[in-house]
Structures are given as structure tokens and as C-alpha cells.
Write a structure and sequence with these properties.
about 50% helix, about 90 residues, 434 Repressor (Amino-terminal Domain), two-stranded antiparallel sheet
Amino acid sequence: MIEAPHCRSARTLLNWSEEDLAHAALLSPATVRAFEEGADLGAADQTMLQLVLESAGVAFVWEGNGDAGVYEAGSGDVSDFDAHHAPDDPEA
């Protein structure tokens, strides 16, 4: 599930304001702002933010340590990310 830095990065990629995201996710701008500043958000609202951002064209690529990369879907960056983290041995 996304965290505050992922949300901010995704909004930046989309060139969306907090208000834009709040409207699309059926949340208040204050809720989005509080989440991005580190406040806890219920799982349903957090999932809604992620789904809205993904539907708008953002891809989240999860690393093994739980961190996520944030990319525009179809930009080519996701493939570069996967290739960069691929094991050296194709049999692995």
C-alpha cells in the first residue's frame, strides 16, 4: 500500500494538486494533505488513493524491502527499473 512519499511523487508525475487528487478519490483536500504530511489514514482511503493514482496512469513498482518506485505507466521507466534490478544470472 502506498505511503505519503509515494502519493506526493505520483501527484507530481500527474501534475495534480492535492485538491485534484482529493476530488478524484472522493476525499477532502485536508485528508490528502494530512496523509502526505504523515498522518495515519484508514486502509480503505489509502487503497482508494492508490487505485485512483494507478487509474490515472501511475505505476508503483514494489521492491523486496517494501519500498516503491513511482513511474508513469508506459513511460519505459518501469522496464528500465526491472532490468536494473534483474539478477545477473538468467537462470536465477
